[in-house]
Amino acid sequence: SENSLESLISIGNICRSPIAEAVFRKLVTDENLEHKWRTDSAAVSDWNVGRSPDSRALSCLRNHGIETAHKARQITKEDFQTFDHILCMDESNLRDLNRKSNQVKDCKAKIELLGTYDPQKQLIIEDPYYGNEKDFETVYEQCLRCCKAFLEKYH
């Protein structure tokens, strides 16, 4: 559609989803498609609202020449009504999002795992919070593969 919309979601909105959001935004900008996409990320929970992404997520993005000014927010009822796609990172996100969407009248969003689009078939993007820099790099690479494939499908 002319105004495709996209939202990237994970539990706390400080590690995986800000990486995915920033990666997707850069891909869209590089392809000169930013007028067609609204990209955002949000959390299922309210744990980290207002916080900047994890410093390791920021440094991972910077290593790839990407900046983000994202502040964590919680997903809203309006998100389900305005976004075409809500992409999440793992099964527990998916369950929570499906449960929340059932409480929303006229939910328009298609809710699915971002990993569904991975050409390497890594369905789950694991939370790197308790890991190290290498785990953040893995998340970045997965997000990049998935976002590219997603964009190719819907562009």
UniProtKB/TrEMBL annotation:
<dbReference type="InterPro" id="IPR002115">
    <property type="entry name" value="Tyr_Pase_low_mol_wt_mml"/>
</dbReference>
<dbReference type="GO" id="GO:0003993">
    <property type="term" value="F:acid phosphatase activity"/>
</dbReference>
<comment type="similarity">
    <text>Belongs to the low molecular weight phosphotyrosine protein phosphatase family.</text>
</comment>
<dbReference type="InterPro" id="IPR036196">
    <property type="entry name" value="Ptyr_pPase_sf"/>
</dbReference>
<feature type="active site">
    <location>
        <position position="16"/>
    </location>
</feature>
<dbReference type="GO" id="GO:0004726">
    <property type="term" value="F:non-membrane spanning protein tyrosine phosphatase activity"/>
</dbReference>
<dbReference type="InterPro" id="IPR017867">
    <property type="entry name" value="Tyr_phospatase_low_mol_wt"/>
</dbReference>
<dbReference type="Pfam" id="PF01451">
    <property type="entry name" value="LMWPc"/>
</dbReference>
<dbReference type="GO" id="GO:0005737">
    <property type="term" value="C:cytoplasm"/>
</dbReference>
<protein>
    <recommendedName>
        <fullName>Low molecular weight phosphotyrosine protein phosphatase</fullName>
        <ecNumber>3.1.3.2</ecNumber>
        <ecNumber>3.1.3.48</ecNumber>
    </recommendedName>
</protein>
<feature type="domain" description="Phosphotyrosine protein phosphatase I">
    <location>
        <begin position="9"/>
        <end position="153"/>
    </location>
</feature>
<comment type="function">
    <text>Acts on tyrosine phosphorylated proteins, low-MW aryl phosphates and natural and synthetic acyl phosphates.</text>
</comment>
<feature type="active site" description="Proton donor">
    <location>
        <position position="127"/>
    </location>
</feature>
<keyword id="KW-0904">Protein phosphatase</keyword>
<keyword id="KW-0378">Hydrolase</keyword>
<keyword id="KW-0963">Cytoplasm</keyword>
<dbReference type="InterPro" id="IPR050438">
    <property type="entry name" value="LMW_PTPase"/>
</dbReference>
<dbReference type="InterPro" id="IPR023485">
    <property type="entry name" value="Ptyr_pPase"/>
</dbReference>
